[in-house]
């Protein structure tokens, strides 16, 4: 498999989650960034795999308390998923929940609640 193949990005994402679960945020961040670069190059900037990498990288930043770095990544992932998969897709709900958690952590309760309500509606519509 070529090092720039989209499947390599998937493998990197999975390995990065292992590092994140172990608390090795530097290693996780590095791998998520590599996965993002590969996905953008191989699949284009608006592919759902790119959104997944953006969301994953944002989760690392959020876990470290770097909310300013995480927020634009969540927003970009949300935009991609809404455009490509549609506004009612479960992946949209996941990013809404992740962004709502960031808003909750930064004392933006109203924004967090609005996103959670939308995520609940999506989850309810996809049962």
Description:
This protein starts with 5 loop residues before the first helix and ends with a helix. With 127 residues, the protein is an all-alpha fold. The mean pLDDT is 95. Helix 1 packs parallel to helix 3, helix 2 packs antiparallel against helix 3 and helix 3 packs antiparallel against helix 4. The chain has a single domain, classed as Alpha Horseshoe (Serine Threonine Protein Phosphatase 5, Tetratricopeptide repeat), CATH 1.25.40.
Number of domains: 1
Classified in CATH, the superfamily is Tetratricopeptide repeat domain
- CATH architectural label: Alpha Horseshoe
Shape: globular
Task: Measure the end-to-end span.
Answer: 37 Å
Parts with pLDDT < 50 across at least 5 consecutive residues:
none
Number of strands: 0
Proportion of strand residues? under 5%
Task: Tell me briefly what this model is.
This protein is mostly helical and 127 residues long. It has 6 helices and no strands. It has helices at 6-21, 25-43, 48-63, 67-85, 90-105, 109-125.
């Amino acid at each position: 498999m070529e090092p720039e193949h989209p499947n390599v990005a998937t493998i990197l994402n999975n390995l990065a989650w292992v590092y994140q679960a172990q608390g090795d945020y530097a290693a996780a961040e590095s791998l998520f960034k590599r996965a993002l670069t590969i996905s953008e190059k191989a699949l284009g900037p608006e592919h759902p795999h790119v959104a997944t990498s953006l969301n994953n990288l944002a989760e690392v930043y959020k876990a470290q308390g770097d909310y300013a770095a995480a927020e634009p990544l969540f927003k970009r992932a949300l935009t991609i998923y809404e455009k490509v998969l549609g506004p009612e897709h479960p992946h949209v709900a996941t990013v809404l929940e992740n962004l709502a958690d960031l808003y909750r952590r930064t004392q933006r309760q109203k924004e967090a609640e609005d996103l959670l309500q939308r995520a609940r509606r999506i989850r309810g519509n996809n049962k």
